[in-house]
């Protein structure tokens, strides 16, 4: 197989972790006799510094013509406490999602048994959890009209959804539910929000096309509570952009750390693969970040963008084997982890590649 892959490391720890996702792809190419051609592009704070634009045209053009994109992270501390900044790193990520039509964000909560002790939740609550989130990614309050009054006394973000936006992500989620345990939970706030009432209407309609899948509707506040009370009750979770953003950060604690969760954003064209974590400036450049989410994002690319299931499994297995051998980065170490088993980003990445080879 011959594929063109665009690497966008982005900001902060994005640089450090993405090199390991890329090396996992290179190792797979060698082992399974594929040709992966790599190109690189800038986005976010890095791109603002160089060009003034968080998503330069050149990056977008490269993205549109590549077969898949591996992305790192976005953001910089200097914007977090500067609400008045007009140009922000995150705009780059939102724009590329919109431009590439990446309306479905798949976030699997992959729980490795070895990490049961790393979570802040009890192992008996966690064991056996396997959730696949479908977060809508190009609509909602993220993309609605934004207003700030001249005198700074009022602001508004418009939350809106079109029927077709709900339909297409719902279909994707139901298709996935069919291949899993045939259970789908749609999360909304239909007791309060009109957008959620439309969401629920549409999901109920689509549900009729999938009578073999059991559908449940849940309010977001309840779902946030159930997720930590009894995560095993969930399988496929379908939700809107903002609710999905929040719920998946919460769910990352089931997997032990934000540093473990990979995601796939798909839609009309090129697929986009990225860890769910942010740029973590506090640890950037210190060889402390967990590279596993980037490596697992590479696995999702192999599986979803290229249909290379065996290769994808090999990568996931290499991560599992590394954890089984006792190796940890700081974020997934528990009180029982000997300090000699706690590795930096580069050492951890190298262990996974060793297992993969
Ligand atoms: C995510 C991130 C982004 C989002 C930010 C960086 C804009 O939190 O991918 O979950 O809110 O979608
Ligand atoms: Mg988020």
TrEMBL record:
Give the location in the cell. Cytoplasm
The pathway is: Amino-acid biosynthesis; L-leucine biosynthesis; L-leucine from 3-methyl-2-oxobutanoate: step 3/4
Residue(s) at site: Important for catalysis: 142, 189
Annotated InterPro entries: IsoCit/isopropylmalate_DH_CS (IPR019818), IsoPropMal-DH-like_dom (IPR024084), Isopropylmalate_DH (IPR004429)
Q: Which domain of life is it from?
A: Bacteria
The UniProt similarity line reads: Belongs to the isocitrate and isopropylmalate dehydrogenases family. LeuB type 1 subfamily.
Q: What is the role of the protein in this entry?
A: Catalyzes the oxidation of 3-carboxy-2-hydroxy-4-methylpentanoate (3-isopropylmalate) to 3-carboxy-4-methyl-2-oxopentanoate. The product decarboxylates to 4-methyl-2 oxopentanoate.
- Which key words are in the record? Amino-acid biosynthesis, Branched-chain amino acid biosynthesis, Cytoplasm, Leucine biosynthesis, Magnesium, Manganese, Metal-binding, NAD, Oxidoreductase
User: In which residues is substrate bound?
Assistant: 97, 107, 135, 221
Reaction(s) catalysed (UniProt annotation): (2R,3S)-3-isopropylmalate + NAD(+) = 4-methyl-2-oxopentanoate + CO2 + NADH
Which residues of the sequence carry a binding annotation for Mg(2+)?
221, 245, 249
Note accompanying the cofactor annotation = Binds 1 Mg(2+) or Mn(2+) ion per subunit.
Source species of the chain? Sphingobacterium arenae
Question: Under which EC number(s) is this enzyme classified?
Answer: 1.1.1.85
Q: Give the GO molecular function terms.
A: 3-isopropylmalate dehydrogenase activity
Q: How does it assemble?
A: Homodimer.
Required co-factor? Mn(2+); Mg(2+)
Q: Please identify the protein, giving its name as recorded.
A: 3-isopropylmalate dehydrogenase
Concerning Pfam families, the annotation shows: Iso_dh (PF00180)
Chief location bin? cytoplasm
Matching SMART domains, A to Z? Answer: Iso_dh (SM01329)
Q: Where is the signal peptide?
A: none
- Isopropylmalate dehydrogenase-like domain residues: 4-352
């Amino acid at each position: 197989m011959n594929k063109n892959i665009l690497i966008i490391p982005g900001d902060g720890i994005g640089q450090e972790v993405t090199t390991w996702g890329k090396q996992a792809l290179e190792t797979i190419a060698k082992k399974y006799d594929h040709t992966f051609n790599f190109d690189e592009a800038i986005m976010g704070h890095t791109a603002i510094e160089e060009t003034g634009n968080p998503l330069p045209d050149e990056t977008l053009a490269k993205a549109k013509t590549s077969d898949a994109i591996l992305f790192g992270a976005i953001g910089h501390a200097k914007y977090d406490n500067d609400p008045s900044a007009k140009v922000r790193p995150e705009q780059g990520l939102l724009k590329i999602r919109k431009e590439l039509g990446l309306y479905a964000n798949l976030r699997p909560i992959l729980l490795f048994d070895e990490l049961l002790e790393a979570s802040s939740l009890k192992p008996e609550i966690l064991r056996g959890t396997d959730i696949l989130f479908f977060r809508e990614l190009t609509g909602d309050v993220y993309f609605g009209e934004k207003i700030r009054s001249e005198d700074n006394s009022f602001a508004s973000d418009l939350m809106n959804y079109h029927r077709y936006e709900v339909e297409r992500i719902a279909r994707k989620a139901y298709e996935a539910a069919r291949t899993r345990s045939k259970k789908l939970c749609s999360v909304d706030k239909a007791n309060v929000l009109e957008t959620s009432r439309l969401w629920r209407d549409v999901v109920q309609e689509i549900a009729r096309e999938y009578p073999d899948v059991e559908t449940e509707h849940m309010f977001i506040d309840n779902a946030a509570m159930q997720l930590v009370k009894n995560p095993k009750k969930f399988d496929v979770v379908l939700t809107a952009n903002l609710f999905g953003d929040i719920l998946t950060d919460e769910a990352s604690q089931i997997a032990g750390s934000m540093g473990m969760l990979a995601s796939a954003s798909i839609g009309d064209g090129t697929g986009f693969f990225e860890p769910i974590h942010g740029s973590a400036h506090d640890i950037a450049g210190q060889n402390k970040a967990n590279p596993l989410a980037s490596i697992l994002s590479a696995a999702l690319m192999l599986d979803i963008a290229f249909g290379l299931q065996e290769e994808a499994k090999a990568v996931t297995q290499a991560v599992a084997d590394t954890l089984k051998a006792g190796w940890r980065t700081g974020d997934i170490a528990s009180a029982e982890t000997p300090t000699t088993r706690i590795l930096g980003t580069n050492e951890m990445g190298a262990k996974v590649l060793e297992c993969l080879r």
